Structures are given as C-alpha cells and as structure tokens.
Amino acid sequence: MMISLVLVESALQLVPESIRGHPQIKRFAAKRGKDPGEVLLDRTFHHSSMISLARAGYPIEKMGRPDIVHNALLQVLETPLNWEGFLQVFVHTQDDYVISVNSKIRLPKNYIRFVGLIEQLFDQRRVPSDGGSLLEMRKSTLPQLIKKVIPDRIVGFSIIGKPEFLRVVTESVCRFKRPMVFIGAFPKGHFTDQTQQLADEMYRIDREGLDSSIVAGRFVYDCEACLGVVNNRIRIRGAQDE
Amino acid sequence: MMISLVLVESALQLVPESIRGHPQIKRFAAKRGKDPGEVLLDRTFHHSSMISLARAGYPIEKMGRPDIVHNALLQVLETPLNWEGFLQVFVHTQDDYVISVNSKIRLPKNYIRFVGLIEQLFDQRRVPSDGGSLLEMRKSTLPQLIKKVIPDRIVGFSIIGKPEFLRVVTESVCRFKRPMVFIGAFPKGHFTDQTQQLADEMYRIDREGLDSSIVAGRFVYDCEACLGVVNNRIRIRGAQDE
What is the spatial distance between Cα B109 and Cα A70, in angstroms, rounded to a whole number? Predict the structure, then answer.
C-alpha cells in the first residue's frame, strides 16, 4: 500500500520573464543577492509587479504563493503515516514541473529557509546536489506523473466536487493499493478542466473551501486511522494489553 | 460548549535585553528599521547571539520559534470548528503574556507578515489598535488565564503523558462544557512542572513528539467529528436525505 499525495497546480514558480525588469522585482532580488530570474514569485512581496502579469493574461489570483506548498508539506511529512512509509509526496507546479519529495527529508520549518531551498532546487534540479537527493525537480505534466506512478485510483478535493465526509472519502481511497490524491495548492480558483478529467472522482468536504494544508493534514490523519498506523506506535493499557 | 485551546509556553518573545547590543541583533533590527528591543527572537536569524543567552542561563532550546505559533494558529483558525463558534484560542508565552485570539481574525498566511503583526502586538498590546481588536495581549500567567476562563477540565498533550489515541482523548474532552487543552508551542523539552500540575490529565498520542501544528490541527478535526460539525455544513446524498 502506497498513497501518492500530489499538490496540484501549485502556486510555486520563479518570477516570470516578462516582469523581471520591474523595479520592485529588481530591488527584491538585489536585496537577496540574486538575479531576478532566480527568485520565487511571492504575492506578499511582488503584488504591484504582478498587476502587469495580469495585463499579460496570467491568472495571477492563482499564482505566487510558496507558503501554501510549504504549509501543506509540513502537515504531511512529519507524520506517523509518512514515517511508516505509506506516503509518496509530489508537488506539481503551474508551469508543469514535478518535485519528488523524499520521505526522509526534514523540511525547513522557517519560511525564508524553505524559499531559499526551493530557489536552489529550481537552479540545480536536486538538493542536496550531491548524493541521495531529498528533493528532485523535473519538467513533467500531471499525465506524465500518472504514467510513472500508475495509480489504481485518482481522487481530487475541490469545492466543485461531490459533497462527502472526508473520512468516507479516505476510507474508499484506502481500499486501493496505489491510490493518488490531488490537493490544489493555489489560493483561489479551481483545478483546470484537464486536471479534473484525470481524476476518477472529485469531492467537496466542506461548505467553504479549506486551506490546502488543512485538507492535506486531515487526509493524512484519516489515512492513519484507516490503516491502523498509530496502533503499532503506542501501547495503550486496556487496548492491546487486554 | 466552548473549547479553549491554549498554545502553552510558546517560543514567542522579543529579543531579551541582555543580547540587544549583539552585532547580529543590531544588524537584523536596523535592516528592518526597528529598535533591537522591538523585534521577535528568531532562531533562524539569531542563532549565534542566542548562544550568549544560553551562557546567561536561558533555556534557549525552547526559545525563539515564532513559526511554531504561526503554523499552529493556521491549523486551528481556518476550520469549521472555529467558524461554527466552538473554539476560543489563546497563546501563552514563556514570558507569561497571554494573547487572546478573536475567532473572526484572518491571520496572515505569510510568515514575515505574521512576525510584523506580533511585533506590533507586543508594542501596542492590541491589533488593530482602534476598535474591535483581533489580537489582545496581556501580562498573565497560566493560572491567571484559568481563573478567567474557569474550564471544567484541563487536558495537556505531552510525550511524557499517558499513551492514548488522540481520538479517544478528544471524545473524553468533548463530554465537558468548557474544556481547556494545552498544546506546547516550543521546539524541544517539556512543559514546566508548574504547567503539568495545572492539567487534570496529560496524554501522549504517538511514539514520537509531533509538531504543535499537527497536534492542534488533528485535535480540532477530531472535535469536529465528536460534535458533528460538518454534518450541518454539507448535504450528503444518502446520509441526511435518507
């Protein structure tokens, strides 16, 4: 049993070429001793330069939020499910890169360090660059990732999906051997039609949209319950000892 | 029913006076246009100056991690449990301040913005400073907070507590009317003896210590299950319609 959790259409991208000459971007990059093409797009710092991106037709309301990926990864990697080897985590980005996350990674908890690490990854395609890499990045579409992983079920979470309790969805997912789960890692909007067509089912788990990190964390926790992961990790008097 | 979730002994503090003259701190504060006494202590940026704190007897392995509070708050505030009014969140700090978090707050997702907000809070004791404040900070010990909230049950999570499934702990907590839960918001070490003595029970929910944000997020999710929160938020064919 191996669950592939994919952060899909993630708002994780380098500053697009067309705004690398923008004064705000140039100042920001210079301050960090980097080239404008080497820094991650971040709404918090690049809001005004992103407006010209919008004019050029970019879907900026979905872009420039590395914090979403960071927080979602923190909720899934340091968990019993991952420690016990049931989880395979991928980050698919809006520019069609796929990052494979080694389950042994200890991701920086600090956001600034995380951003630095991802910028290094965009530059070198693997970190650490020598030996067993903990993060690896390849140009890859979602269909290409699916072709590689060969999941036997693909389920996505989306506010436009079928209403269902997350726990019920997870139970159905855990009946498969190599299920794959799509969780959007962008601030607003929906999966593209293309992405939606890849999923066997799409579910809505609350009236409101929930943050990616919350959906991801809850899904992982429910998987642990379904698979009885914690039962083997703590001894509870009156449970196993009876 | 109102659950008080308290982040306890949080590693959220201004740079202590004794190292405000340290070159690293002075540089860091100047870069941000602040006085050294106005910036939050952050291990990522102040590691070398914290070594002199250790020499002065400070428990530095527990200090200087605003990211822990930030991530834990993100996991509890943007949830159905909070939206439905079952949750009251407090942040108790190692220097005995207590921050009351208004459940209506939309916390900055970006870490840098969060740090700026908390620095403003340390300075002005409420933000926004005019009108209905979303964060309020008072000098207060944990016993003083308890005296104010008057919980009918206090449960803490700690690696040195009694082993139990989180779900079982949460079910027992939800039988009370005004339960209070302690979640440590520091990177290493344990609750002080004083804190431990305030809790009716302390539970260990995994073999390994889990991040505060993960414990907090899972507890909130389990509360939603116990209280049937989501049942009223989505319509599921075959469930309510039957």
Answer: 11
